[in-house]
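Review form for a predicted model. The reviewer records the input and the model, then writes brief findings.
Reviewer: anonymous (R2)
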Amino acid sequence: MRYAIIPYLLDQSKKVTVSGYPIVRAMLFYYPQDKTVWHIDDEYFFGDDFLVAPVMNSENKRDIYLPEGLWVNFFDGEEIQGPYWLKDFDCPLNEMPVWLRHDAIIPVYAEHVSCTDDMDMSKVLRIKVDKTYKGVRKSVLSGLFKI
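Model under review:
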């Protein structure tokens, strides 16, 4: 998966060199008016569009807070309108709770490579995260993931 999202990381890296903002951002960065995020220190944004909620227990479950807006599960495409708490969210070991902003455009590399030297950046695809997005399990990227 890390090779697939390198184009996203490159785009976000260009943005941070101009803005000075870090790539990894606390939820408070985007939602300072939401008092709930002031107390959440184990969820974060990866760039502008990925909301990441790592599971850090042996039960593979956790509570996840999705702030205001429409959020789309990276793996299965499920949409949830925030603000919303997902209680005891069950996550398989080979996945991670990652949510995308609805209407985000995510650049991805959809071919298998073993090294960044093998990447031809002219082959980057841009995935629109909208009603047609069904998650990486059912997308052009499904063959790149061992899900």
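Findings: The two ends are 11 Å apart (CA to CA).
Further findings: Residues 6-19 form the longest helix (14 residues).
Recommendation: see findings above.
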